[in-house]
Amino acid sequence: MQIYNTLTRKLEELEPLEPGHVRLYTCGPTVYDYAHI
Q1: Sign of CA dihedral 9, 36, 26, 13
Q2: What's the chain's average pLDDT?
Q3: Which residue among 1, 8, 22, 31 is buried most deeply as judged by most CB within 10 Å?
Q4: Which residues pair with 11 in a beta bridge?
Q5: Residue 33 has what DSSP assignment?
Q6: Rounded Cα gap, residues 26 and 7, in angstroms
Q7: How many CA atoms does the CB half-sphere of 7 hold within 13 Å?
Q8: Using one digit for the tens of pLDDT, what is the confidence trace for 13-29?
Q9: How far apart are CA 28 and CA 6, in angstroms?
Q10: Whole-model pTM?
Q11: 1 and 14 in contact (C-beta within 8 Å)?
């Protein structure tokens, strides 16, 4: 899976710390609907 890095403005390979699991931290999450990117 690739993710766009806004700092470098490049697509980068996403390598999870735990194989098969990706965690996402969001600041100020929407509590009344599903999380989205």
Answers
A1: negative
A2: 84
A3: 22
A4: 4
A5: S
A6: 17
A7: 1
A8: 999 999 999 887 777 76
A9: 20
A10: 0.48
A11: yes
Q: Please give the Cα distance from 2 to 35 (Å, whole number).
A: 19
8-state DSSP, 13: E
> Please, are residues 25 and 34 in contact by the beta-carbon 8 Å criterion?
no
CB 27 within 8 A of CB 35: no
Residue 37 is predicted with a pLDDT of: 63
* Residue 24: per-residue pLDDT: 78
Phi, psi (deg, nearest 5) at residue 27: -95, 125
Q: Using an 8 Å Cβ cutoff, are 2 and 12 in contact?
A: yes
Look up residue 15 and give its two tokens. Answer: 């390598």
* Pairing mode of beta strands 10-13, 2-5: antiparallel
The answer to whether the CB of 36 falls within 8 A of the CB of 24 is no
